[in-house]
Write a structure and sequence with these properties.
Blueprint (H helix, E strand, L loop, with lengths): L3 H25 L10 E5 L6 H17 L3 E5 L6 H8 L7 E5 L2 H8 L9 E11 L1 E5 L7 H8 L4 E5 L5 H13 L3 E5 L3 H9 L5 E4 L1 H9 L3 E6 L24 E9 L4 H14 L3 H9 L3 E6 H22 L3
Parallel strand pairs: 1-2, 1-3, 6-7, 6-8
Antiparallel strand pairs: 3-10, 4-10, 4-11, 5-8, 5-9
Length: 323
């Protein structure tokens, strides 16, 4: 029969063995306790723009599922090129993520940038939103016909976030089809472009509904056309370009990518957290208020979609002579 001293010794051995085993498991799988600190969530738009609104709304909704804060960082410039360059250099440890749009494929196709979508691992696609032409409420442009008529008489100033971005491609296709005269004016972010339009420095701006909703509701701006298959429920009075005889469908898709080489286990946990965030009340409200179609895809599905978009825009931009 064991005495108390021997029993204590045996117990201490078991405690030591379990502690070693536990430490070994943690060492073998450093992602087991992920996440253990705040996540840096980068957006490539300026404050107030569509990308910023998307990133901040999703980040807030995802915090409870990550169990850690999502620290949003704005990195505007170059149609996303600045943010891509920065994010591509971050450690692939799951603590840095980038909110992306269609510019993930468009910007590398049209700019001399060192990065492309291949420098990142897709985590999740969230949804798509349309591209809308907006002008000052009560101003010269109240319809697509007004734009086409004026564009044949003078040079229109049309705001864009860079050559080859979704807003530019949509407008450029219309210019090509109609022969109107347009001078594209580049901006680094939505906030700056909006101020220029409201100040009368440009005539028109293409934006996602999430970027222009506040100004439309305040009767500062008016939507005059939308580059989508069908009219939007919230803006049912805004006709599609297709209705006007110009079959131009250019939409913005949104999702999350991380630096290349991020462990699959981490990406799986990120997908789980972000996908659950899409069902939170603030994200449901975001989808509804901005007429965004929720379209969740996992990493492999998102990659396949990105590749198809790359091929589509490469062909389209080549035909347009942009690349």
């Amino acid at each position: 029969m064991l005495n108390k001293k021997k029993i204590l010794s045996v117990l201490m051995i078991f405690v030591f063995m379990f502690s070693v085993i536990g430490t070994g498991c943690s060492a073998d799988d450093p992602t087991a306790n992920y996440p253990e600190k705040p996540l840096n969530f980068m957006v490539w738009g300026s404050p107030g723009g569509g990308s910023d609104i998307f990133g901040r709304t999703l980040g807030k909704a995802a915090e409870s599922h990550f169990g850690e804060p999502m620290v949003v960082e704005n990195k505007p410039g170059g149609g996303g090129a600045t943010a891509m360059a920065e994010m591509s250099q971050r450690d692939p440890d799951g603590y840095s993520a980038l909110a992306v749009t269609t510019n993930l494929v468009l910007t590398p196709l049209t700019k001399d940038t060192p990065n492309s979508y291949e420098d990142f691992d897709p985590v999740i696609m969230i949804g798509t939103d349309a591209t809308m032409i907006v002008a000052q409420a009560g101003g010269e442009f109240q319809s697509v016909e007004d734009v086409l008529e004026a564009g044949k008489e003078r040079t229109l100033k049309w705001g864009t976030f860079g050559i080859g971005t979704t807003d530019h491609v949509a407008a450029a296709l219309l210019v090509e089809m109609t022969g109107i005269d347009v001078d594209f004016v580049p901006f680094d972010g939505g906030g700056e472009a909006m101020a220029s339009l409201l100040g009368g420095h440009i005539d028109l701006l293409n934006g996602n509904p999430s970027e222009v909703a506040t100004q439309i509701e305040a009767d500062q701006l008016i939507g005059i056309g939308i580059f989508s298959e069908e009219r939007l429920e919230k803006y049912n009075d805004v006709p599609t370009l297709k209705e006007k005889g110009y079959d131009i469908i250019v939409e913005t898709w949104r999702g999350i990518v991380v630096p290349k080489g991020t462990p699959q286990e981490v990406k799986d946990k990120m997908f789980d957290a972000f996908s659950k965030a899409c069902d939170e009340e603030e994200m449901i409200e975001y989808f509804n208020q901005n007429d965004i179609s929720k379209n969740v895809k996992n990493g492999s599905e998102f990659l396949e979609f990105i590749e198809s978009q790359h091929n589509f825009f490469q062909e389209t931009l080549t035909e347009m002579g942009i690349i």
